[in-house]
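SAMPLE LOG
Freezer: B-3
Tube label: C17
Construct: single chain, 297 aa
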Amino acid sequence: MTEPPGFSVVVCTRNRPQRLRRTLDALDAQSRTGFPLVVVDQSLPADEALARLSGEEPRFELVRDHGTGLSRARNIGARRTGTEWVVFLDDDCVPEPDWAERFAEELARCPQAEIVSGHVEPGPLSAEYVPAAAFRVERPALRRGRFRHPGQLGFGVCMAVRRSAIGRLGGWDERLGAGVAGFPAAEDMDFNYRLLHSGGAGLVTPAPRSRHEQWRTPDELVSLYRGYLRGWSGFAMKHLRSGDLLGGLWLWTIGVVDVLDMLDSAVRRRSRWRLRLAGAKLRGLLEGTIAGLLARW
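STRUCTURE (predicted):
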């Protein structure tokens, strides 16, 4: 029996020490151990307890980054690893105890895949809550094709990426993503889209399972989804402005449909809060479109 391909885990964090501890504790309790762990910390001030912890654990490398931006942190983390696969896990995501073991098995099952995404369950929710970055998977599927929705490959919250794909695509676009004022989202969607556009494929599988904590207040969610749509429409304009006219218009249309879907949900549920969320998404869509058209990509 051949050994499964090697992988490292990269966790990018900024000013979430308590949530990060839960993620690290869950990684420490895995049934499969020995994988290298890199934490890229952009926190201000620096987390001294995290520095002490890294000094006690040989396989745990702490990288202090004085810059900002999730794309930047992912690129830094990927460069600090040497394994065939890099598994990215958000600092508010808690993996199941067999998560690493299941990932190791899934990375070996589909050699043509360059991305492997597991099941991400949102934390406890109220009926009205709209979860962020949940990714439920019922059965394994290989997904490819230029006009496949990039979100169907999963989210950077919990995703394994083949090192060769990171190199081929030049990593994550640091003009996009959390921590970037102009386009504070969609860095993972941009990466997925470029991978699909280049002929790559992704495997989605229910085997590795994790829980994405849903800790934001309703007001924070409104701001978050405004940023999501600003980032999405900005990334759509990036591709349109870069010569991919058909792809850029298609991506922008997906953003419009997202806004309309939330408006429809607000009307059907008679929910003022969802109506507010739809308004925030529309505002983000318009802001990102204008900024993306004016940006120098």
